[in-house]
Amino acid sequence: MWRVGAAALCFAMLAAPAQADPRSELAKARHDLAISEQVLARVSERADAARSDPATAPQERRRLDKYLARVRDLVELNRERVRSLEQAIEVLPAGLPAGGKGGRGAPAAATHAEEVAALDAKLSGSLAEFDQLLLEEARKARARAPTRASAGGYGAESNGGAAGTRAQKSGGDETSATGVSASHEGSADPRPSGKGPGSPGGRIEGTDPGAAGPTAARPPDVGDGSDDDIVARQIRRAAETEADPELREKLWDEYRKYKAGTKG
Fold first, then answer.
1. Which of 111, 113, 194, 201 is the most exposed place for a label (fewest CB within 10 A)?
2. Distances in whole angstroms, Cα of residue 229 to Cα of each of 39, 65, 224, 251
3. Three-class SS of residue 221?
4. pLDDT tens track for 173-193
5. Sign of CA dihedral 218, 221, 224, 228
6. What is the pTM of this model?
7. Residue 118, Cβ neighbours under 10 Å: how many?
8. Dist. CA 214–CA 220, nearest whole Å
9. Could you read off the pLDDT of 22-63 as tens digits, one per residue?
10. What DSSP string describes 134-173?
Protein backbone atom coordinates (compact mmCIF):
# COMPACT_ATOMS: atom_id res chain seq x y z
CA MET A 1 0.00 0.00 0.00
CA TRP A 2 2.87 2.39 0.78
CA ARG A 3 4.40 1.72 -2.65
CA VAL A 4 1.16 2.44 -4.49
CA GLY A 5 0.50 5.60 -2.48
CA ALA A 6 4.02 6.96 -3.02
CA ALA A 7 3.88 6.24 -6.77
CA ALA A 8 0.52 7.97 -7.13
CA LEU A 9 1.78 10.93 -5.12
CA CYS A 10 4.91 11.32 -7.24
CA PHE A 11 2.87 11.07 -10.44
CA ALA A 12 0.49 13.80 -9.28
CA MET A 13 3.41 16.05 -8.44
CA LEU A 14 5.43 15.46 -11.62
CA ALA A 15 2.60 15.37 -14.17
CA ALA A 16 2.05 18.66 -16.02
CA PRO A 17 -0.48 19.86 -18.61
CA ALA A 18 0.96 19.88 -22.14
CA GLN A 19 0.38 23.60 -22.72
CA ALA A 20 0.79 24.89 -19.15
CA ASP A 21 2.68 28.09 -18.44
CA PRO A 22 6.13 27.33 -16.92
CA ARG A 23 5.64 30.13 -14.39
CA SER A 24 2.38 28.55 -13.25
CA GLU A 25 4.12 25.18 -13.06
CA LEU A 26 6.87 26.69 -10.92
CA ALA A 27 4.31 28.10 -8.50
CA LYS A 28 2.66 24.69 -8.28
CA ALA A 29 6.01 22.95 -7.76
CA ARG A 30 6.87 25.33 -4.91
CA HIS A 31 3.47 24.65 -3.37
CA ASP A 32 4.08 20.89 -3.62
CA LEU A 33 7.50 21.28 -2.04
CA ALA A 34 6.12 23.28 0.88
CA ILE A 35 3.44 20.68 1.56
CA SER A 36 5.85 17.74 1.39
CA GLU A 37 8.28 19.50 3.76
CA GLN A 38 5.47 20.06 6.26
CA VAL A 39 4.47 16.40 6.03
CA LEU A 40 8.09 15.33 6.55
CA ALA A 41 8.36 17.48 9.68
CA ARG A 42 5.16 16.07 11.18
CA VAL A 43 5.94 12.46 10.32
CA SER A 44 9.50 12.78 11.65
CA GLU A 45 8.22 14.10 14.97
CA ARG A 46 5.72 11.30 15.38
CA ALA A 47 8.20 8.65 14.26
CA ASP A 48 10.73 9.87 16.85
CA ALA A 49 8.08 9.61 19.56
CA ALA A 50 7.11 6.09 18.48
CA ARG A 51 10.74 4.93 18.29
CA SER A 52 11.47 6.22 21.79
CA ASP A 53 8.49 4.31 23.21
CA PRO A 54 9.66 0.93 24.61
CA ALA A 55 6.29 -0.57 23.63
CA THR A 56 7.02 -0.07 19.91
CA ALA A 57 7.96 -3.41 18.36
CA PRO A 58 11.16 -3.68 16.24
CA GLN A 59 9.22 -4.44 13.05
CA GLU A 60 7.09 -1.35 13.58
CA ARG A 61 10.22 0.77 13.95
CA ARG A 62 11.54 -0.61 10.67
CA ARG A 63 8.25 0.27 8.98
CA LEU A 64 8.49 3.81 10.33
CA ASP A 65 12.05 4.21 9.04
CA LYS A 66 11.00 2.88 5.64
CA TYR A 67 8.09 5.30 5.41
CA LEU A 68 10.27 8.23 6.47
CA ALA A 69 12.79 7.38 3.75
CA ARG A 70 10.03 7.52 1.13
CA VAL A 71 8.82 10.89 2.37
CA ARG A 72 12.38 12.25 2.27
CA ASP A 73 12.75 10.98 -1.30
CA LEU A 74 9.54 12.75 -2.21
CA VAL A 75 10.80 16.03 -0.75
CA GLU A 76 14.03 15.70 -2.74
CA LEU A 77 12.07 15.07 -5.96
CA ASN A 78 10.06 18.24 -5.36
CA ARG A 79 13.21 20.26 -4.70
CA GLU A 80 14.76 19.01 -7.93
CA ARG A 81 11.61 19.91 -9.87
CA VAL A 82 11.64 23.44 -8.46
CA ARG A 83 15.29 23.86 -9.44
CA SER A 84 14.64 22.58 -12.98
CA LEU A 85 11.68 24.92 -13.52
CA GLU A 86 13.62 27.90 -12.17
CA GLN A 87 16.41 27.21 -14.67
CA ALA A 88 13.90 26.79 -17.52
CA ILE A 89 12.19 30.10 -16.75
CA GLU A 90 15.50 31.95 -16.81
CA VAL A 91 15.79 31.32 -20.59
CA LEU A 92 12.14 32.12 -21.46
CA PRO A 93 11.32 35.25 -23.49
CA ALA A 94 10.24 38.08 -21.23
CA GLY A 95 6.91 38.65 -23.06
CA LEU A 96 5.62 35.06 -22.97
CA PRO A 97 1.86 35.13 -22.27
CA ALA A 98 0.78 33.72 -18.91
CA GLY A 99 -1.35 30.98 -20.47
CA GLY A 100 0.81 30.06 -23.50
CA LYS A 101 -0.60 30.04 -27.05
CA GLY A 102 -4.26 29.95 -27.96
CA GLY A 103 -5.65 31.58 -24.81
CA ARG A 104 -5.33 28.43 -22.69
CA GLY A 105 -4.62 30.36 -19.48
CA ALA A 106 -8.01 29.76 -17.81
CA PRO A 107 -8.12 25.97 -18.41
CA ALA A 108 -4.54 25.67 -17.20
CA ALA A 109 -5.41 27.56 -14.01
CA ALA A 110 -8.43 25.34 -13.44
CA THR A 111 -6.33 22.21 -13.98
CA HIS A 112 -3.69 23.53 -11.59
CA ALA A 113 -6.30 24.09 -8.86
CA GLU A 114 -7.66 20.58 -9.34
CA GLU A 115 -4.19 19.07 -9.14
CA VAL A 116 -3.40 20.98 -5.95
CA ALA A 117 -6.66 19.77 -4.37
CA ALA A 118 -5.91 16.18 -5.40
CA LEU A 119 -2.38 16.46 -4.02
CA ASP A 120 -3.64 17.75 -0.67
CA ALA A 121 -6.07 14.83 -0.48
CA LYS A 122 -3.32 12.29 -1.23
CA LEU A 123 -1.00 13.77 1.40
CA SER A 124 -3.79 13.77 3.99
CA GLY A 125 -4.49 10.13 3.19
CA SER A 126 -0.84 9.22 3.54
CA LEU A 127 -0.63 10.95 6.92
CA ALA A 128 -3.82 9.20 8.07
CA GLU A 129 -2.21 5.84 7.24
CA PHE A 130 0.77 6.77 9.40
CA ASP A 131 -1.56 7.75 12.27
CA GLN A 132 -3.31 4.40 11.91
CA LEU A 133 0.06 2.67 12.25
CA LEU A 134 0.66 4.39 15.59
CA LEU A 135 -2.87 3.58 16.73
CA GLU A 136 -2.35 -0.11 15.94
CA GLU A 137 0.76 -0.06 18.12
CA ALA A 138 -1.28 1.46 20.96
CA ARG A 139 -3.86 -1.31 20.60
CA LYS A 140 -1.12 -3.95 20.83
CA ALA A 141 0.14 -2.32 24.02
CA ARG A 142 -3.39 -2.42 25.44
CA ALA A 143 -3.62 -6.14 24.61
CA ARG A 144 -0.56 -6.73 26.79
CA ALA A 145 -2.07 -4.79 29.71
CA PRO A 146 -4.16 -7.64 31.31
CA THR A 147 -0.95 -9.54 32.14
CA ARG A 148 0.42 -6.57 34.07
CA ALA A 149 -2.95 -5.93 35.71
CA SER A 150 -3.15 -9.56 36.92
CA ALA A 151 0.33 -9.32 38.42
CA GLY A 152 -0.66 -6.12 40.21
CA GLY A 153 -3.82 -7.74 41.60
CA TYR A 154 -1.81 -10.64 43.05
CA GLY A 155 0.49 -8.23 44.85
CA ALA A 156 -2.47 -6.34 46.25
CA GLU A 157 -3.99 -9.56 47.61
CA SER A 158 -0.69 -10.41 49.33
CA ASN A 159 -0.70 -6.97 50.95
CA GLY A 160 -4.24 -7.64 52.11
CA GLY A 161 -3.10 -10.85 53.82
CA ALA A 162 -0.31 -9.00 55.63
CA ALA A 163 -2.77 -6.35 56.81
CA GLY A 164 -5.04 -9.10 58.19
CA THR A 165 -2.13 -10.63 60.11
CA ARG A 166 -1.27 -7.28 61.72
CA ALA A 167 -4.91 -6.82 62.67
CA GLN A 168 -4.91 -10.27 64.31
CA LYS A 169 -1.96 -9.33 66.52
CA SER A 170 -3.44 -6.02 67.69
CA GLY A 171 -7.16 -6.87 68.17
CA GLY A 172 -9.48 -9.34 69.94
CA ASP A 173 -11.74 -12.07 68.63
CA GLU A 174 -13.25 -9.87 65.93
CA THR A 175 -9.89 -8.92 64.41
CA SER A 176 -8.74 -12.52 64.70
CA ALA A 177 -11.60 -13.55 62.42
CA THR A 178 -10.45 -10.92 59.95
CA GLY A 179 -6.92 -12.30 60.08
CA VAL A 180 -8.12 -15.84 59.37
CA SER A 181 -10.05 -14.61 56.35
CA ALA A 182 -7.01 -12.71 55.04
CA SER A 183 -4.67 -15.66 55.54
CA HIS A 184 -6.73 -17.73 53.09
CA GLU A 185 -6.67 -15.21 50.26
CA GLY A 186 -3.91 -17.01 48.36
CA SER A 187 -5.73 -20.37 48.26
CA ALA A 188 -9.45 -19.46 48.42
CA ASP A 189 -11.77 -16.85 46.97
CA PRO A 190 -10.09 -13.44 47.49
CA ARG A 191 -13.31 -11.45 47.15
CA PRO A 192 -14.57 -11.59 50.79
CA SER A 193 -11.50 -9.73 52.10
CA GLY A 194 -11.79 -7.29 49.19
CA LYS A 195 -15.22 -6.26 50.46
CA GLY A 196 -13.97 -5.44 53.94
CA PRO A 197 -13.40 -1.78 54.85
CA GLY A 198 -9.84 -0.56 54.48
CA SER A 199 -8.66 -3.62 52.54
CA PRO A 200 -6.05 -2.78 49.84
CA GLY A 201 -7.27 -5.78 47.84
CA GLY A 202 -10.75 -4.25 47.80
CA ARG A 203 -9.47 -1.07 46.17
CA ILE A 204 -7.72 -2.98 43.37
CA GLU A 205 -10.85 -4.99 42.59
CA GLY A 206 -12.98 -1.89 42.58
CA THR A 207 -10.88 -0.24 39.90
CA ASP A 208 -11.63 -2.97 37.37
CA PRO A 209 -15.21 -1.86 36.52
CA GLY A 210 -15.17 1.75 37.60
CA ALA A 211 -11.78 3.46 37.98
CA ALA A 212 -10.93 3.52 34.28
CA GLY A 213 -13.39 5.93 32.73
CA PRO A 214 -13.75 9.45 31.30
CA THR A 215 -14.23 11.03 34.76
CA ALA A 216 -11.54 9.18 36.72
CA ALA A 217 -8.85 8.85 34.06
CA ARG A 218 -8.97 12.17 32.18
CA PRO A 219 -6.06 14.56 32.96
CA PRO A 220 -7.07 18.21 33.42
CA ASP A 221 -4.99 19.46 30.47
CA VAL A 222 -6.55 17.40 27.66
CA GLY A 223 -9.83 19.31 27.37
CA ASP A 224 -13.21 17.83 26.51
CA GLY A 225 -12.24 16.54 23.04
CA SER A 226 -14.90 18.56 21.21
CA ASP A 227 -12.45 19.42 18.40
CA ASP A 228 -10.97 15.90 18.00
CA ASP A 229 -10.72 14.28 14.58
CA ILE A 230 -11.35 10.54 14.16
CA VAL A 231 -7.79 9.51 15.08
CA ALA A 232 -7.70 11.73 18.18
CA ARG A 233 -11.06 10.34 19.30
CA GLN A 234 -9.79 6.78 19.03
CA ILE A 235 -6.66 7.54 21.07
CA ARG A 236 -8.73 9.43 23.68
CA ARG A 237 -11.21 6.54 23.96
CA ALA A 238 -8.37 4.06 24.43
CA ALA A 239 -6.84 6.21 27.19
CA GLU A 240 -10.16 6.77 28.97
CA THR A 241 -10.99 3.07 29.12
CA GLU A 242 -7.49 1.80 30.00
CA ALA A 243 -7.29 0.29 33.52
CA ASP A 244 -3.49 0.10 33.77
CA PRO A 245 -2.16 3.49 35.05
CA GLU A 246 1.22 3.26 33.31
CA LEU A 247 -0.26 2.38 29.92
CA ARG A 248 -3.04 4.94 30.37
CA GLU A 249 -0.46 7.71 30.86
CA LYS A 250 1.39 6.62 27.69
CA LEU A 251 -1.86 6.80 25.72
CA TRP A 252 -2.56 10.30 27.04
CA ASP A 253 0.98 11.35 26.07
CA GLU A 254 0.36 10.05 22.54
CA TYR A 255 -2.93 11.98 22.48
CA ARG A 256 -1.19 15.22 23.50
CA LYS A 257 1.52 14.77 20.83
CA TYR A 258 -1.05 14.07 18.13
CA LYS A 259 -3.16 17.12 19.08
CA ALA A 260 -0.06 19.34 19.12
CA GLY A 261 0.88 18.06 15.66
CA THR A 262 -2.55 18.75 14.17
CA LYS A 263 -2.61 22.27 15.59
CA GLY A 264 0.83 22.97 14.12
1. 113
2. 18, 26, 13, 16
3. coil
4. 444 444 444 444 444 444 444
5. negative
6. 0.35
7. 13
8. 11
9. 788 888 888 888 888 888 888 888 788 888 888 888 888 888
10. HHHHHHHHHHTHHHHHHHHHHHHHHHHHHHHHHHHHHS-H
